[in-house]
Amino acid sequence: MKRTLPAELADNGRPPGRWGFLAVGIWLFYLVQPLTEIWQTQHGVTRILGLLNLLAFAVAYLGFFAVLRWQEFRPDASPLWQRLGYLLFMLGLALLLTMTAGQTALTCMVYIAATAVLSLRLPLGVAIVLLLLGGVELAMRVVPGWSDDGSYGFAIFLGGLAVFAMRVSMQRSSELSRARQDMAELAVQEERNRFARDLHDILGHSLTVITVKAELAGRLIQANPERAAAEVADVESLARAALGDVRAAVAGYREISLAGELVSARTALQAAEIKPDLPTTLDEVPEENRELFAWVIREGVTNVIRHSGAKRCTIKLSGRQIEVLDDGKGPTAETSADGHGLIGLRERAHQTGAGLQVGQAPGGGFRLAVKVGP
């Protein structure tokens, strides 16, 4: 998913606030093993250097996590060479630690493996885990005085597997967050439609009263001019009130959602017995293009239903372009000329730096397309 883990993940895919550092920092408990080894086997300056080395590794581990968290755990948030360089730096500290902590310094490889899986794309992260696993197993067999008990390799495997599972969980949580956001957009769209229906009823009542009063004033204008004037004044008052209602509706409800328009398009096309072929995900469409693309769908689908005589309508979406295509009779003098809808759509596209195209679709039919940027 080109979709990288979004900001919402702070609430759904990873521990927020200080709990994120607590969840990661608690695993530093396992550095007690090399800490004990240094304290028991080293003395004087060597002990101090070993403890400082161990402290530097712990700080590097937490620091890398802080950077990753700030970048929202996106694998493309910083250049690959920077992340690999940081991992090599941690590896260098771990190898230096073997001079004072001996074999127990291999515990640090578990942290490096976990960080690699968390910070890199999964194939590369898994490859690094396998390299660390092979290197540790080889070192325990060839370094004099080191024993091969299999515990370090097993710990590296489990650490990498645990972080892999955590990444999958984070991605699923992110997808769930997006699904909830789409549902919220649909709920807002439905509420706007409900309000529009209510407003329609109110305006219908007002216009009905205006019509009745205008007819009455017309009949009274000769017989009772004063009452006719009063009725005309009422008509003016009602008309101004209705106009105010329309302006308020336009000002407060002109925004539309891309998700809502896709749902409405499917319903309208099916009602017109036109087979809809619509996208099922909006992941590639940036937020700043969604309202314009929603207007394209509304205008394009309306034209398909009214003018095309089509049996199928296809909508194609990408990050910068939307196309509405049908298999109908294609461009005609009526559809090729800009009507009010296409004129308004062209103006909207121009305001956002996009271009609008109308013409024949590949294989026949009509094509309406809007592309953002060059």
TrEMBL record:
The keyword Transmembrane helix applies. The chain crosses the membrane at residues 19-36, 48-68, 80-98, 110-132, 152-170. InterPro entries: HATPase_C_sf (IPR036890), Sensor_HK_TwoCompSys (IPR050482), Sig_transdc_His_kin_sub3_dim/P (IPR011712). One of its GO terms (molecular function) is phosphorelay sensor kinase activity. This is Sensor histidine kinase. Residues 191-255 form the Signal transduction histidine kinase subgroup 3 dimerisation and phosphoacceptor domain. It comes from Kribbella antibiotica. Keywords: Kinase, Membrane, Transferase, Transmembrane, Transmembrane helix, Two-component regulatory system. The keyword Kinase applies. CDD domains: HATPase_UhpB-NarQ-NarX-like (cd16917). One of its GO terms (cellular component) is membrane. It holds the Pfam family HisKA_3.
